[in-house]
Amino acid sequence: MADKEGLIIVFTGDGKGKTTAALGIALRALGRRQRTAIFQFMKGRERSGEQMLDKDTIPLIEVHAFGAGFLREGDDPAPHRKAAEKGWRAVEEELSSGSADIVVLDEISHAVNHGLIPAGQIVRSLSSRRAGLHVVLTGRNMPPDLIDIADTITDMKEVRHAYRSGKGAVLGIDY
Ligand code: ATP
Ligand code: MG
Q1: In a domain, 173, yes or no
Q2: Least confident of 36-40, 67-71, 98-102
Q3: Residue 156 region, left (φ>0) first, then alpha (ψ -120 to 50), else beta?
Q4: If pLDDT is split at 50, 70 and 90, which confidence band does 46 have?
Q5: How many Å apart are CA 147 and CA 10, to the nearest integer?
Q6: Ligand with an atom nearest the CA of residue 141
Q7: Ligand 1 atom showing the smallest separation from residue 169 Cα
Q8: Is 175 a member of any domain?
Q9: 70, 72, 74, 75 alpha-carbon torsion, rounded to 10°
Q10: Which residues line ligand 1 (CB under 6 A)?
Q11: Is 90 within the bounds of a domain?
Q12: Protein residues with C-beta less than 5 angstroms from the ion ligand 2
């Protein structure tokens, strides 16, 4: 059972800033020489700048991406399920016997909402995680079961996004 110091933090909502808030925590923790393990679901490799962080330069932040590209309606879910299950096995290992101080499960809501990982399994694994381990969950439409177990929940609200004026995703800012 996690002790009192191990928090569960949720960044959800439709506005920009969920993943980058988690990265901000990793950066803050780095200043404290704490280790952060980031697991990204539903994302291919090298889609985003954080996946290119150099382990030699920043050995205390590790980023693992598990995804099989975009999952659209009508697609065969098998490769996506396989990628998510592989990711989840890596997460379970980190939760039970890893060395991270903070674990980030990025876009975990989508993995649950697409039926790739059962919410109940996540809740069970988190409740038996190493004592003191903090966990950050990000993604839109966070399932109620994961909201229920969180200590801190922030709902990012879109007021405006540059996407809407057709500016497209900006390197370094958005990916
Ligand atoms: P970020 O990674 O920038 O913190 P996020 O994690 O909050 O964003 P996601 O839903 O994961 O948001 O979206 C990932 C990408 O979509 C990012 O490039 C982000 O800028 C962009 N994005 C975020 N919010 C919106 C929005 N409301 N409309 C369009 N695009 C968005
Ligand atoms: Mg995100």
Answers
A1: no
A2: 67-71
A3: beta
A4: low
A5: 7
A6: 1
A7: 18
A8: no
A9: 0
A10: 14-20, 138, 140, 156, 158, 161, 163, 169, 174-175
A11: yes
A12: 18-19
Closest C-alpha to 7, from 98, 132, 128: 132
Residue 130, domain member (yes or no): yes
Rounded to whole angstroms, the Cα distance separating 91 from 1 reads 16
**Is the overall model pTM greater than 0.70, yes or no?**
yes
**Is 68:79 a contact under the CB 8 Å cutoff?**
yes
Which position has the token pair 């990025």?
106
DSSP tag of 99: -
Structure tokens at 154: 């922030």
Q: How far is the CA of 96 from the centre of ligand 1 (A)?
A: 30
Work out the percent of the chain whose per-residue pLDDT is above 90.
81
Average pLDDT value for residue range 60-86: 88
State how far the Cα of 37 lies from the Cα of 92, in Å rounded to an integer: 12
- For residue 55, the domain's CATH number is 3.40.50.300
Ligand sitting nearest the alpha carbon of 169: 1
Confidence (pLDDT) at 3: 46
Please count the structural domains in the chain: 1
- Tell me the three state secondary structure of residue 38: strand
- Name which of 18-22, 79-83, 155-159 the model is least confident about: 79-83
Range of the domain at 35: 2-165
Tokens 């697409």 belong to: 114
Which pairing describes strands 8-13 and 152-156: parallel, antiparallel, or unpaired?
parallel
